[in-house]
Design goal:
- By secondary structure, the chain is an alpha/beta fold.
- It folds into three domains: 50 residues, no CATH class; 98 residues, no CATH class; 188 residues, 3-Layer(aba) Sandwich (Rossmann fold).
- The protein contains eleven helices and nine strands.
- Strands 6-5-4-7-8-9 form a six-stranded mixed sheet, with helices on both faces.
- Helix 1 packs antiparallel against helix 2, helix 5 crosses helix 11 and helix 10 runs parallel beside helix 11.
- The longest helix has 20 residues.
- The two termini are 17 Å apart.
- The relative contact order is 0.17.
- This is Protein xylosyltransferase.
- Keywords: Signal.
């Protein structure tokens, strides 16, 4: 109850500050002096203390939350999975089915129609690109996917209501904390193909590894004039400038609490203006990771949108493979950081959050709307 009261106070303070900040996006010079004083006080003290009450500010101890996955029993029939839409949506549906199969020591055949699994991941003993079997779950999973002791979650860390965390459904929130999900995600990361690595390795070479520095990540999902599912869910529409500004400010508050002197920031976004904004506004000592290999975005929508979308029909097979490989690279890059910021919901970040949780690294979820406060999971 006390934690919820703290959250409510944090939200109220944030709304007041965000109202003031809207007068000038990048600073407070136009605010009356008395308001600037209150603004600075709350920014440096109140927000940091309230949003992180009861939570550790020293670096978390790194350890693996992974389990040793059992080898498949080849005498048992394989099951098969499909996928539609973007890589985030596919994996939110595939992962529970993978857990179901691994718990039962069964092999998994991945049968994607557009971009073949083998273009993104090497075959492993358990998961391989393969033909559809008689037990085909499509882009779904069995209802009893979680009924096994190795996949049960014993506890849930507290999280404030009204944050982006709430937008992830109950299955996704379970996956955040399942050691078996952590293990599968890590194994997928170890089986990335050269095509995916051609996007990911240039990013990794830019990560800050120097003493007293941090490597921080964020995913900013705006939407690109999509129709259908995204258009109908108005709660997914965000103010991109406010979201970018509040994310960067939260990152710097976190870095200050860790005593970091600088570092690197990786930002994945469907808006081409977001990364340049971070480059322009990142404080001295901070560099933004720049992709050395990138593909153009569609004029409207995303390359792999909702079921039935024809956006990617303009792409040939090679271009589809490249577009999906770039997306997979961003998913794994977001999972390789000292802190991950989630200002708004996107299935794209599910695997990234799981990867970060597997390393016991901090994940921050933003309050909905024009609040500036992020809460650590």
């Amino acid at each position: 109850m006390q934690f919820l009261r703290i959250c409510a106070i944090a939200l109220l303070v944030s709304l007041i500050l965000s109202t003031l900040r809207r007068l000038q996006f990048t600073g407070t010079d136009l605010l009356p002096a008395i308001f600037r004083g209150y603004y600075t006080f709350f920014e440096n003290h109140a927000l940091t203390n309230v949003a992180t009450a009861g939570r550790r500010r020293e670096p978390k101890e790194k350890f693996s939350n992974c389990l040793e996955l059992p080898a498949p029993n080849h005498s048992l029939p394989a099951l098969s999975l499909g996928g539609c839409c973007g890589i985030g949506h596919r994996l939110t549906r595939n992962l529970p089915a993978m857990i179901y199969a691994v718990n039962r020591r069964r092999r998994i055949h991945m049968d994607y129609d557009d971009v073949k699994w083998r273009e993104l991941f090497h075959d492993t003993e358990t998961i391989k690109d393969g033909p559809r079997t008689s037990e085909f779950h499509g882009n779904g999973f069995p209802q009893d996917w979680h009924l096994n002791t190795t996949s049960l979650v014993s506890s849930r860390p507290p999280i404030c209501p009204g944050t982006a965390h709430d937008r992830y459904d109950s299955v996704q929130r379970q996956l955040f904390h399942m050691p078996i999900a952590h293990s599968i995600a890590k194994r997928l990361g170890e089986s990335l193909t050269p095509l995916v690595l051609s996007y990911l390795l240039p990013l990794r070479r830019q990560y800050s590894t120097e003493t007293n520095t941090l490597h921080l990540c964020a995913h900013v999902r705006e939407g690109n004039n999509e129709i259908g599912d995204w258009k109908d869910k108005t709660w997914r529409h965000v103010d991109i400038l406010h979201t970018s500004n509040s994310t960067l400010r939260s990152m710097m508050t976190f870095a200050k609490s860790r005593g970091a002197m600088g570092g690197t920031i990786f930002v994945a976004s469907d808006n081409n203006n977001v990364r340049p904004w971070f480059e322009q506004h990142a404080p001295t000592g901070w560099k933004v990771v720049i992709p050395t290999k990138a593909l153009p975005r569609p004029e409207a929508g995303v390359w792999f949108g909702e079921h039935g979308s024809k956006t990617n029909h303009v792409l040939n097979t090679t271009q589809k493979n490249e577009a999906m490989a770039e997306a997979v690279s961003d998913v794994f890059a977001l999972g390789e950081c000292d802190g991950l910021w989630i200002p708004n919901y996107s299935s794209f970040t599910l695997l990234s959050i799981i990867l970060v949780q597997a390393d016991n690294t901090s994940v921050f979820f933003k309050y909905h709307g024009l609040s500036d406060v992020f809460v650590e999971m």
